[in-house]
Design a protein that fits this description.
- It is a single chain.
- The longest helix is centred in the middle third of the chain and has 22 residues.
- The strands form three sheets. A three-stranded mixed β-sheet has the order 2-4-3, covered by helices on one side. A two-stranded antiparallel ribbon has the order 1-5. Strands 6-7 form a two-stranded parallel sheet.
- By secondary structure, it is mainly α.
- Helices cover about 55% and strands about 5% of the residues.
- It is built from 23 helices and seven strands.
Length: about 475
């Protein structure tokens, strides 16, 4: 497929001087987009041009959409054009142009096409509820999304729209972050650790452990009881987490990703759910979680401590059902042989797990049988809680275990990870000593830096000739690590 720019010249017949800008944007987009993506881009420009809202809108679209496509994929181009079409009947062309100008920031901060679509939906809703607030809000998008998740942004915006519906001056101040109420609500909705701020570190963390790439995707955790999950071998994590007791949000993310990755690395087949009740599946999943964590901890002992810190937490709030306290203590026992539950039957099951796991660490039928034994311990005394209560178990890093029952083989060599946003990829360049001396911003940046420059020549310190005996290459250089 080829895209001919001349086919779109007629759109700019009324302003031929703008076509030079269009041509420059087209050639820049062609460097980073596929032929299909480029065709969608230009068809979108043609549609926006036909709206008759001015060429500034079209130019803003062409200048900013390639960056959005790099972050969230080219499929979102049509969604963005559709959102602009909807807004055209509700607000001015200038506001829509500002929307396109702010979209690269939103795409970079949200990092997921579904979240970006949710952001566009929020903009459309606000255009109906508080159209006067869109213009000021779009000017502070960077600050808002650097502190809020999409769910937090939605609550912040809806509060302002409802509170100042009939007070237009204060509505404008609220959405421009110029009022005390606006700042207070922003602080109230702010979460501890945003996924987008730690995604690169998590990617490198998993690669360092298992020598392969995993694709991590943020998911709007805007309801109580959200659990991470694996879908299509993509690790879906909450878009933000708060600290849990003394465990920082970053460590909680590490525990989540390592647990999900352990499921993928140490699962070879699905567990049959035939003739099992949802409660029985939960108990089997609890043992399966311990099995994959055991395998991971054998390879990387530090993971046992990471998970153990969260399993050892004792909560002040009393759960709805007393069985949950026993199950949480039992989960800790499976991680730490030295722990106890205070229940002789559970302690015996824990001892059985630790006695047999070394020989059956790769057999998920071991989880099936031991999980059923665990279920019968509570069923014998009629102490099995409802599934709603079971799913509320207070182990904050565990997933919903859908992968355990829906396992699908995956060829990593053939398929690899899914689309990775451009801002999350690491760029490695080989440059001369002159470029290093004049251009490098952070000489001692870590291995997780977004862009790494490697000196291809010997780079000596700036001392006078004869004084420098050791090069920067020898002082700070590292041997390159081959790609996993």
């Amino acid at each position: 497929m080829t895209v001919d720019l001349e086919d779109y010249r007629a759109c700019f017949a009324r302003a031929p001087e703008d076509f030079d800008t269009v041509e420059a944007s087209f050639h820049e987009a062609a460097k980073v987009m596929s032929a299909q993506g480029l065709a969608d881009l230009m068809e979108g420009a043609k549609g926006l041009c036909n709206l008759g809202r001015g060429h500034d809108l079209v130019l803003a679209y062409l200048e900013n959409m390639p960056a959005v496509a790099r972050e969230c994929g080219e499929d979102v181009i049509r969604d963005c054009v559709g959102a602009a079409m909807k807004l055209s009947s509700m607000t001015s062309g200038e506001v829509i142009a500002r929307l396109f100008a702010a979209l690269p920031t939103a795409a970079r901060r949200l990092g997921d096409p579904e979240l970006l679509r949710g952001y566009l939906q929020l903009i459309h809703q606000l255009s109906a509820k508080a159209a006067r607030g869109l213009r000021p809000m779009l000017t502070v998008t960077d600050e808002l999304l650097s502190k809020l998740t999409l769910s937090g942004l939605r609550r912040w915006a809806n509060f302002g729209a409802d509170a100042y519906r009939r007070d237009l001056p204060n509505l404008t101040k609220y959405f421009a972050l110029e009022s005390a109420d606006s700042r207070k609500m922003l602080q109230q909705e702010r979460r501890g650790t945003l996924f987008i701020d730690t995604q690169r570190k998590l990617n490198f963390y998993l690669r360092a452990l298992w020598g392969r790439d995993f694709f991590l995707r943020p998911t709007a955790a805007d309801y109580e009881g959200f659990r991470p999950y694996i879908d299509g071998h993509v690790l879906h994590l909450p878009d933000a987490v708060d600290d849990v007791a003394d465990v920082r949000g970053h460590d909680l993310y590490r525990a989540m990703t390592a647990h999900l990755a352990a499921h993928i690395c140490y699962s070879t087949a699905a567990i049959s759910a035939e003739q099992l009740s949802p409660a029985q599946m939960f108990f089997i999943g609890l043992i399966e979680d311990a099995r994959v964590e055991y395998n991971a901890a054998q390879a990387f002992p530090g993971l046992a401590k990471l998970w153990g810190n969260l399993l050892a937490l004792r909560w002040d709030k009393v759960p709805e059902h007393p069985t949950m306290v026993a199950l949480e203590a039992f989960a800790h026992l499976l991680n730490d042989p030295g722990a106890t539950t205070g229940n002789a039957q559970l302690d015996a099951l824990g001892a059985k797990f630790h006695a047999e796991i070394a020989d059956r660490s790769t057999d998920n039928q071991f989880s099936w049988h031991l999980g059923m034994e665990l279920y019968h311990v509570f069923a014998a005394t009629r102490d099995v809680p409802s599934l709603r209560i079971l799913n509320a178990i207070r182990i904050p890093y565990r997933d919903d275990n859908r992968f355990v029952w829906e396992f699908e083989e995956f060829d990593w060599d053939a398929h690899g990870a899914e689309y990775i946003p451009a801002s999350q990829r690491q760029v490695r360049k080989y440059v001369s000593a002159i470029e290093l001396a004049n251009e490098v911003d952070v000489e001692l940046a870590g291995d997780d830096a977004q862009e790494i420059w490697v000196g291809k020549d010997t780079f000596m310190p700036y001392e006078d000739a004869g004084e420098a005996t050791v090069s920067h290459n020898d002082m700070w250089g590292k041997e390159p690590i081959s790609a996993p």
